Amino acid sequence: MRATTIISASLKKLLDLTETGRGIVISAPLPARRGAGNLKRYPTAHAHDVCEMKIVLRGRMLCRFQNQSLKVRAGGILIIPANTLHADTGPQDLKPGTLWLNLWFVRGAFGLCLSDGREIATVFLTDEQHARLSALLGMAPADLCAHVFALVHGQAQPLRSKAAQGFLSSLFALLAQTIITTAVSPRKTEELIARAVTFMRIMYYKPRLRIDDIAQAVDRSPSYLSHIFKREKQISVWQALAGIRLNQAYRLLRQGRHSVKEAAYQTGWASPFYFSLRFKQKFGYSPSSLSGRDIALPPPKNQAAFGMNAGRDFRRGNAKRRQTAYAT
Predict the structure, then answer these.
(1) Torsion of CA 14, 17, 23, 25, to 10 degrees
(2) Which residues share a beta bridge with 27?
(3) φ, ψ for residue 73 (rounded to 5)?
(4) Smaller CB count within 10 Å for the chain: N or C?
(5) Residue 293 buriedness (CB in 10 A; 0-12 / 13-18 / 19+)
(6) Where a domain ends, among 184, 199, 223?
(7) Cα(72)–Cα(248) distance, integer angstroms
(8) What is the pTM of this model?
């Protein structure tokens, strides 16, 4: 309950700010362009397929995008729309003592993380909480984020800015009430796996993402998390993560704005060569067939929820190749 208490207190502070409008600045980056631009030297540059919100509670942070950098000070709210390439926040981007709240509007899920450069507390809404929050808001949280972005994009008029603050005030109030009044510890195995997958969908771009990090996010031990993945999904946690990374890379390459190397690094692969092998094994064609080309391709041959069959299919392919080699 410590994580929910800490984050709920942060949301109540945000509620006070948005209701009074004191010091609140809502900003958003300019539209993206082709390629990585100024982010080529940042190995953890990435783009989510969902909306993200960064809220600075104390201090100041610098957020880097393809063709601009935005400073977000205390009381500032930065809305990052889906498919917007940006660098991960590092120590060089933070004023000492900076504290911020990250909100991820994943489809069908919702995650919050309080951080000062290290993770302090993380909370994921249960399916019940997400449904309740959506009903109270009158729309899914992800739709609300997109609506607020539309209001503040570019030079927002005072009336639009006030409307955006009103939407966010409702979100923070209902969110604080939701996470503090409903049990947040996952009771069902399916829900625990869903939360772990949600965390991987958010953090997949980190090449050094460990099973310990995933287990900590869902408040379970690494051994227990590995056990239930094997028992329920017949795959390992790493195979699930590989599938998510491959699906995200497929989405980036289909946009035609990224090279194979950029797609590999942006989705957490340390080696573009190894990424290409895994990609071809999963989808049936090389990533270079997709990158920047408007051609008709067959649908991926191995599609499953969260791409969880990626690692297993790769092993099967290796086994077939070994059998062929032995036969010859």
Answers:
(1) 60
(2) 78
(3) -100, 175
(4) C
(5) exposed
(6) 184
(7) 28
(8) 0.74
